[in-house]
Structure formats: structure tokens, C-alpha cells
Amino acid sequence: MPDSKPLAVVLAAGQGTRMKSDLPKVLCPVLGRPMIEYVLDALAAGGVEHVVAVVGYRADDVGQQLAGRPTVTFVEQRERLGTGHAVQMALPILEKHQGPVVIVAGDSPMLQSASVKRLLQEFRGIGFQPVRASNSTTDRLEAYPTACLLGTLHKANPQGLGRIVRDAQGEFAGIVEEKDANEEQRQITEVNMSTYVFDSGELVHALGQLRNDNRQKEFYLTDCPGILLREGKVVKALPILQPCEALSINTPEELAAVEEKLRELGYK
Questions:
Q1: 8, 21, 33: which is closest to 57 by C-alpha?
Q2: pLDDT of residue 132
Q3: How does pLDDT run across 33-85, given as a tens digit for each residue?
Q4: Is the whole model's pTM more than 0.85, yes or no?
Q5: Which of 5, 8, 49, 169 has the fewest Cβ atoms nearer than 10 Å?
Q6: 230 contacts 138 by C-beta, under 8 angstroms
Q7: What is the pLDDT of residue 248?
Q8: Three-state helix/strand/coil letters over the chain
Q9: Nearest to 153 by CA among 128, 125, 198, 118
């Protein structure tokens, strides 16, 4: 594939214990289809042809389920050491890629193809800024690289989700997990939905800077935007995801809510 085409990394290594199922979480059925199938359909319709699926628990079962999708490559996360560690499993592929890398969770069947398209459009469009030479009265557009774009949304009840913190100018300043948030930050309604577009080179660089000096001793993907921002790279967070994408599946009750919403959208 041409290097400039977008590549996606889909995180699909977990077990669906809270779903009261022995299946890998991404294979839990939603309206009779494994939830990861909806994610892959949205990526394909959004313009992402090639996908790297990071599998772990019962990896062979996930591979067998997706055997009919020739554009999906599998890498295995044998130890579950965090979301950043999961993406690190794809480094041999990422290091050869030049272009946008979309990262999404395999258990997010409400991902919309329109959101994928817009994220990629915005990622490419952000890479220009007006520049005026000292001896000129007119501006010109000058390209500069976008390191990372986060797709976010506002949620009336953001409980349990990481909050998007912005500076006085309204620019992205970081992600604060709820357990680490102060009372003011807990009032923020803009949340991180684990939906990213990275420049491949910047992603590889940030993954190499990750540390696991936290209580869980895990490597977090959410640290990557902050690493790049501190280095002066361009990192943006745009609340452009659709309201339905706030629906996640962690319990049978949440599964029922997602199925109801999918029926409203015309799925059977």
C-alpha cells in the first residue's frame, strides 16, 4: 500500500469478564455480530483500508473470526501491560509506515464512519498555519506536521472517563483520568474516547518514551499526546465525535443500550 494511506490499530486483546462471558470481549455479539465487526466496517467506510488488530486473550478465536478480512494483520499482546504496551506490539509495522495512524478500541461498535472521515480530514487540514514574512503584508499558508489529533465529545455524565483539559487559550493541555482529577476537573464534560489519529513517526517516537511508573505498572497510550505536547509538537483535541459514540460496552446492561441505539440507526 502507498505509505501515505491511513493505517488503523485496533485494540482487541481483552477478555469480556464484566460481560459475564468467556469470549474475547471484541467477539461478544451485538445484534448477532461480534462487536469488532462494526468497528472494522466503520474504519473501512471511513477510508482506512489496512488494519492491525492487537489480539491477546484467545487470539486464535479472534483471528478465525476475522479470517475473511484480508486487509487485517494480527499482532499478539501476550502480556496485558496497558494500552500503550498494546500499540507497541505493532511497532514493526508502524516503523515502516509513513502517514496517519488511526487508533481505536475494538469494543467500540458505535464508532461512525463519518467520524473516521472527519478525523482524517481534520488531521490533514490542521497541518497548515498562516505565516507572514517580515517584509510582506500578506499571509501565506505554510505546512507544519500534526503529531496527534484526539477525537473527543461532550458527555452530560462523564463519570469514569478521562477529561480533556484545555489551557487559557482553549488549546489541548492534557488528559486527566477521573481518579486523578480534582473537583474542578471532574466538572469537565469533554471526554477522551480513546479515538486518535497520530503521525506514524511521532507515534513511534512517543511509544519509545512511555514509562510504567504508575500504580498499575502499565504503559498508557493516553500518555503519548502529553509527551508530544511537551516537546512542542502539534497536538489537538476536537469534540467532533457523535453523541452515539459515547455509548460503550462494559456490561450486559450497556450492551442492551447499544443494541437499542443500533436498531434506531437501522441495524437489525
A1: 21
A2: 55
A3: 999 999 999 999 999 989 999 999 999 999 999 999 999 999 999 999 999 99
A4: yes
A5: 169
A6: no
A7: 86
A8: CCCCCCEEEEEECCECHHHCCCCEHHHCEECCEEHHHHHHHHHHHCCCCEEEEEECCCHHHHHHHCCCCCCEEEEECCCCCCHHHHHHCCHHHHCCCCCEEEEEECCCCCCCHHHHHHHHHHHHHCCEEEECCCCCCCCEEEECCEEEEEEEEECCCCCCCCEEEECCCCCEEEEECHHHCCHHHHCCCEEEEEEEEEEHHHHHHHHHHCCCCCCCCCCCCCHHHHHHHHCCCEEEEECCCCHHHHCCCCCHHHHHHHHHHHHHCCCC
A9: 118
Phi, psi (deg, nearest 5) at residue 181: -80, 145
**162 contacts: CB under 8 Å, gap ≥ 6:** 175, 176, 177, 178, 191, 192, 222
pLDDT tens-digit series, residues 160-197? 899 999 999 999 999 999 988 999 999 999 999 999 99
Among 110, 36, 105, smallest CA distance to 259 is for 110
Cα dihedral 207→117→264→110 (10° resolution): -10
Name the average pLDDT for the chain.
Answer: 92
C-alpha cell at 126: 490542521
Q: What amino acid occupies position 141?
A: L
Give pLDDT tens digits for 206-258. 999 999 998 889 999 999 999 999 999 999 999 999 999 999 898 999 999 99
Residue 141 has pLDDT above 80, yes or no: no
